[in-house]
Write a structure and sequence with these properties.
This protein has one domain: Aldolase class I (TIM Barrel, Alpha-Beta Barrel). It has twelve helices and eight strands. α3 links the parallel β3 and β4. α1 packs parallel to α2, α5 packs across α7 and α7 packs parallel to α8. The longest helix is centred in the C-terminal third of the chain and has 19 residues.
């Protein structure tokens, strides 16, 4: 069964439009020092940060030079390879900076930039073409929740995003209930588990048991040090996509070290 497979938890910090390149360097240095002091085991919990595009080269240089146990990625990618697309960033450019991950389909992109399921699917394929692991974001609004129930919209979004991709891919899925993001009111661990289990069933159906077994499903939406342990106890939740709390060094470090605090 998929839940019997050991998946390394991923704690991913999405900085959104915060921290310039100098602030990013200082933050990553301090985060690395804090994790070293806590004897962080990178094989037990993976940590990743997602700076603005203008910070990526600085973060790459620091992490590479000091061999820091922190992965990094981009907050978006273009579906286009190159050409007359002002303001777009190609997957080839991100791969050239050694990005490991890229966030795709975040609720803010879907809402503020009207990204469709078709665009999200195209971006997933663009990321995979350059060996970038997409973190595919899915989630429902309060209106969706009332009209369709909790799992229907995230399941439909994931099906659309992974249609036609290879069954050998390396992807991550992030369930982010839009009604919880930035509200201070997270979903309950039981709600997150219900949707995560439904999403894993989609992975089994679409990509097969092996991919479903290894694919990490994250929860995102008002994640804090005070609630992370509850989510991580659920069998289908394999980490968190952290927004505002990822900008608070103490808070984010505590989220990363959730195992130490709760004895998991």
């Amino acid at each position: 069964m998929t839940n019997s497979v050991r998946r390394t938890p991923l704690i991913a910090g999405n900085w959104k439009m915060n921290l310039d390149h100098l602030q990013a360097i200082a933050f990553v240095q301090k985060l690395a020092w804090g994790l070293a002091d806590a004897k962080h085991d990178a094989s037990s919990v993976e940590v990743a940060v997602f700076p603005p595009f203008t910070d990526l080269r600085s973060v790459q240089t620091l992490i590479s030079a000091d061999k820091l146990p922190i992965a990094f990625g981009a907050q978006d990618v273009s579906e286009h390879e190159s050409g007359a697309y002002t303001g777009e960033i190609s997957g080839a450019f991100l791969a050239g900076l050694d990005c490991r991950y890229v966030i795709i389909g975040h609720s803010e992109r879907r809402t503020l930039h009207a990204e469709s399921d078709e665009q999200v699917a195209a971006k997933v394929k663009a990321a995979l073409k350059h060996n970038l692991a997409p973190i595919i974001c899915v989630g429902e609004t309060a209106e969706d929740l009332e009209k369709h129930g909790q799992s229907a919209v995230p399941v439909a979004q994931l099906k659309a995003a992974i249609e036609g991709i290879s069954s050998t891919v390396d992807i991550v899925v992030a369930y982010e209930p839009v009604w919880a993001i930035g509200s201070g009111q997270a979903a309950t661990p039981e709600q997150a588990e219900q949707v995560a289990a439904a999403l894993r069933a989609v992975l089994v159906e679409t990509l097969g048991e092996d991919v479903a077994a290894k694919t990490r499903i994250l929860y995102g939406g008002s994640v804090k040090a005070s609630n992370i342990a509850g989510f991580m106890r659920e069998p289908n939740v394999d980490g968190a996509l952290v927004g505002g709390a990822s900008l608070d060094l103490t808070e984010f470090s505590s989220i990363v070290r959730y195992q130490k605090h709760v004895g998991l």
